[in-house]
Amino acid sequence: MHIEGEREIHLTTWNESHFHQLYSIANNPKIAMNLRDSFPQPYTIHDARHWIEHNQKFNPAQNFAIEFEGRLAGAIGAERGKDELRTNMELGFWVGEPFWGKGIATEAVKLYTEHIFDKFDIQRIYAQVFDFNGQSMSVLEKAGYIPEAILKGGFIKHGTVGDLFQYVRVRGED
């Protein structure tokens, strides 16, 4: 699957062509710092292989490679809530450091949000952001997400407790 955006930004399903590019841009502590601890650091070639193979089984696709000018620039995806929370999807995204400050993440979040509301019977998409990650907060706001909650003391990262900011887009509230 391929979702076309503006300015040569595309979302595409993960495939073998992403393998070496993924390893080289994901193996960066500055990226891992802003993501959940389940994101490996260091990010090895085996992690890249596992991620690509894992994502090839989903239909419809839930996680996409972000491409900019024909190169892998990052990743975006969501996980559906379980049981009574099944009308929710939690969004996650990252962009490699060489691509920061170019508006790529904002465009990717907009494209992805439209895709999710089109392909999945969910009511809301939310994202949680560590209090020190103002760049991701800005991306979400530019993509039409609104601040929903601040979870005081909601995370611990590298021994430091901080607040978790939650943003949301609700179907039909554009």
SSE layout:
Blueprint: E1 2-4, E2 9-13, H1 19-26, H2 29-32, H3 45-55, E3 63-68, E4 71-80, E5 88-95, H4 104-119, E6 124-130, H5 134-142, E7 146-157, E8 160-170
Parallel strand pairs: 5-6
Antiparallel strand pairs: 1-2, 2-3, 3-4, 4-5, 6-8, 7-8
Helix pairs in contact: 1-3
Explain what this protein looks like in three dimensions.
The protein has helices at 19-26, 29-32, 45-55, 104-119, 134-142, and strands at residues 2-4, 9-13, 63-68, 71-80, 88-95, 124-130, 146-157, 160-170. The chain has a single domain (2-170), classed as Gcn5-related N-acetyltransferase (GNAT) (Aminopeptidase, 3-Layer(aba) Sandwich), CATH 3.40.630.30. Helix 1 crosses helix 3. The two termini are 25 Å apart. With 174 residues, the protein is of the alpha+beta class.
